[in-house]
Amino acid sequence: MTSVTKSIDVDVPVRKAYDQWTQFESFPKFMGGVESITHHDATHTHWNTKVGGVEREFDAEITEQHPDERVAWKSTDGTTHAGVVTFHRLSDAETRVTVQLDWQPDGIVEKVGAAVGMDDHQVMADLERFKDFVETEHGQPGGWRGDVTPPSTN
Question: Model-level pTM?
Answer without folding.
Answer: 0.85
